Amino acid sequence: MSVFDERRLRRRRLALPWLVRGALVLMAAIWLGVFGIAFVVNPYKDGKVWLEGSHRQLGFPPCTFKELTKLPCPSCGMTSSFALAVRGDLWHSVQANFLGTALVVAGLALVPWGVMSAVKGRILLLWFWRHWSLQLLVGFFIVMFVRWGVVLALAYWDL
Predict the structure, then answer these.
(1) How far apart are CA 23 and CA 128, in angstroms?
(2) Is the pLDDT of residue 90 over 90?
């Protein structure tokens, strides 16, 4: 077997099955849908930025956690953050919930990555995903709860 045949065989073994390619395209489509929904939400109320409660425009009930405790929940401001970020109002998006801004940036990166991986038939930047995906996910939740602790502390001390 020649070197060329070995390379072709190795490429075929590494090629993604159509189901995985479809899942990558579906993931990209879901992110585009999330961005579309974020465009539907109006993050401005009476000419001012609406930093929380904008999820009500989508027909969702008020935040149960906030209604019971009178305190913001860990994801408070996330919908407003998304709606502001997709409009390019990053300053107010960060103020609403900086993790929402980070998720928008991640989503903007994942859309072309998913499509290109599906088209190429292999996971692009595989080394990154193998080593960092779990750490990024755990880190996201740690930062979310640390942020929540800071928000609660500021609310407690009325700052």
Answers:
(1) 19
(2) yes
As a whole number, mean pLDDT of residues 60-71 equals 90
Residue type at position 59: G
Would you give the DSSP letter of residue 132?
H
- Categorise residue 73: left if φ over 0, alpha if ψ from -120 to 50, beta otherwise: beta
DSSP string covering 65-120: HHHHHSS--TTTTHHHHHHHHHTT-HHHHHHHHHHHHHHHHHHHHHHHHHHHHHHH
Question: Inter-axis angle of helices 90-120 and 78-86, to 10 degrees?
Answer: 80
What is the model's pTM?
0.80
The residue extents of the domains of the chain are 3-156
Tell me the C-alpha distance between 156 and 81, whole Å.
23
Please determine, for residue 6, whether its predicted confidence score (pLDDT) is greater than 60. no
CA 6/CA 159 separation, integer angstroms: 66
- Cβ atoms of 116 and 75 within 8 Å: the answer is no
Only one residue has tokens 């409660």, namely 53
Radius of gyration of the chain measured on its C-alpha atoms: 20
Look up residue 10 and give its two tokens.
């190795």
